[in-house]
Amino acid sequence: MTKFNIIALKHPVTMELNDSHLGQKEYWDKVYVTELDNFKNNQDDVGEIWFGERTEQKLVDWLVENMDPDSSLADIGTGNGHILSLLAEEGFSNLTGIDYSASSIKLAETINSDYPTVKFLCQDIINSPPSGERHDICIDKGTYDAISLASTSATDRVTYKQRIHSMVNPETGKFVLASVNWTVEELSDFFSDYFSVQEVLPCKKFTYGGVTGADVSIVVFCPVRTSF
Fold first, then answer.
1. Where are the domains of the chain?
2. Rg for the chain, CA atoms, rounded
3. Mind giving me the DSSP string for 15-80?
4. Fold exhibited by the domain 21-223
C-alpha cells in the first residue's frame, strides 16, 4: 500500500497537501474488500497495520497506562479495527470503531468477531453530525491524514476538529492523534481553538538535510471550552 509522505519541515498551518487517492472513499472501499477476502483465506492476515505495529503498540501501551479499561473509547477511521482487538485483549470493555467505509466495518467486525465488547458504526463524521454520544477518549491513527489528502480538505479539516470536539467528554476526555503528514507543531497550531496539548508521545527520530524530525507525530489533546 502506498504510504503517506513524511514531512520533516514545518510549513504554514494554512497550507493544504496535494490531493491523493488516499483521500478518496472509493479507494478505501476497494482496499477493505480485498483485505476481507485475504482475511477469509488466511486469518493471520488482518491487513495493513497503518503506521506499523510499533506505532499501534505505542498507542495501546499509553492507553493501558493512562486510561481506565471501562473508559468509553472511539477509534475514528477504524479501518480493520485491529487496535481494538489489542485493547479488548487488555481488558477494555467499551470500544467503538467508526468508519465511513461499509467495507471497513465488515472487515473489522469479522476480525473482531471473538470480542463481544467491540462494536462498530458505519458513519461519515464529516458529512453527517455524530449522534451526540460523548467518549472518554477518541483515537485517530491516519484518518486526519487521509482527510488532509482529499480534494475538499480545506473545509473538511475544520469540520473534522469540530466533530471530534463534540464527541469527546468536555471535562475529562482525551483525543489522541497520530500523523505522518503533520508535525507536532502543526497539529498543535491547527487544533488549538478546540484542544490543548497534554502530552507528546516520544517517537523514533530521523535527520534529513540537517533537520531532525519524527517519522510519526503522536499528540494527546484535551478539549477546551469554546464559544463557537
1. 21-223
2. 17
3. --PPP-GGG-HHHHHHHHHHHHHHHHH-TT-----TTHHHHHHHHHHHHHHHS-TTS-EEEET-TT
4. Rossmann fold (3.40.50)
C-alpha atoms less than 13 angstroms from C-alpha of 40 in its C-beta half-sphere: 9
Question: What does each of the 228 residues of the chain score in pLDDT, given as a tens digit?
Answer: 333 333 333 444 456 766 677 767 788 778 888 887 877 777 776 666 667 788 899 999 999 999 999 999 999 999 999 999 999 999 999 999 999 999 999 999 999 999 998 999 999 999 988 778 899 999 999 999 999 999 899 999 999 999 999 999 999 999 999 999 999 999 999 999 999 999 999 876 554 445 555 589 999 999 998 765
Query: Rounded CA gap, 41 and 167, in Å?
Result: 36
The residue type of 46 is V
pTM attached to this predicted model: 0.85
DSSP 12: -
| Cell of residue 121, nine digits | 458504526
Count CB-CB contacts under 10 A for residue 52.
13
